[in-house]
Amino acid sequence: MPGTESAREIMACAAERTVRFEQQTGEKPCLATVLVGDDPASATYVRMKRNRCAKLGIESRHVPLPASTTTEALVAAITELADDPAVHGILLQHPVPGHIDERAAFDAIPVGKDVDGVGSSSFAAMAFGRDGFASCTPAGIMRLLDAYGVDPSGKHAVVIGRSPILGKPMAMLLLARDATVTVCHSKTGDLPSIVRTADIVVAAVGKPEFVRGEWLKPGAVVVDAGYNEGNVGDVAFDEAGTRAQLLTPVPGGVGPMTIALLMEQTVEAAFRQAGLP
Ligand SMILES: Nc1nc2c(c(=O)[nH]1)N[C@@H](CN(C=O)c1ccc(C(=O)N[C@@H](CCC(=O)O)C(=O)O)cc1)CN2
């Protein structure tokens, strides 16, 4: 499976670096996870991340907060983690309850600890090719394209979805690799005809089997970044499979890469904070 295989390689490397970090500093890299409320899917994703940390020898510290948490209280909890030198990376699980200003909370994570790449400063650094961490799912997708020998340069890439942690950074990363990028969203007219012109399609809409096989240009590369209930992606897999040159599966595609990138970036943050190469 494409994602599982590439993710395994990235995580093996993160595990090796974790051992080296401990030998050099006597400490372990540490990821703090912040979960607000009791959404079961979010709880599952946080558990998957913490389990992966444990497997790789990365420490994790969990901060569960009630759904009634205010923006101010969440920002204060994040600031406490930001000020703690034993914490190298901070992850705030998205989505947070609707009354919270999620952007303010993401932006409270200092850029050096923003291993999930969700802050505005991280976005700017990524967009302008500066040091920082990219949002894990789009960064994982770029690595997946590389692993499969797909060079975005000169290709028409269509990103369906414009969310701050997926569609928008995805467009920037593809642009940085010289793709011609079209971002489509809920107000886009005649989506199928735009998708039909794409060499690379990234589906990040959050609607099960939304992208149909007949929309695709034969030979297109199709990346399914959907994570809908029941492990169903945003692409109608069987239909798309008959037309696509490469189609990432759900499960076993983009999801494992998201977690692998989070592990890689947490370990890298630990090295940077310790001033080690
Ligand atoms: N702060 C963040 N919040 C959210 C992100 C994110 O990157 N940062 N992404 C999504 C959900 N997500 C991680 O949080 C996520 C979703 C799915 C998977 C995954 O590996 N899925 C597996 C299948 C699930 C399973 O095996 O039970 C797969 O696709 O193979 C990883 C991460 C929203 N929130």
TrEMBL record:
It catalyses: (6R)-5,10-methenyltetrahydrofolate + H2O = (6R)-10-formyltetrahydrofolate + H(+); (6R)-5,10-methylene-5,6,7,8-tetrahydrofolate + NADP(+) = (6R)-5,10-methenyltetrahydrofolate + NADPH. It holds the Pfam family THF_DHG_CYH_C. Keywords: Amino-acid biosynthesis, Histidine biosynthesis, Hydrolase, Methionine biosynthesis, Multifunctional enzyme, NADP, One-carbon metabolism, Oxidoreductase, Purine biosynthesis. GO terms for molecular function: methenyltetrahydrofolate cyclohydrolase activity; methylenetetrahydrofolate dehydrogenase (NADP+) activity. GO terms for cellular component: cytosol. Homodimer. HAMAP family: THF_DHG_CYH. Catalyzes the oxidation of 5,10-methylenetetrahydrofolate to 5,10-methenyltetrahydrofolate and then the hydrolysis of 5,10-methenyltetrahydrofolate to 10-formyltetrahydrofolate. Belongs to the tetrahydrofolate dehydrogenase/cyclohydrolase family. This is Bifunctional protein FolD.
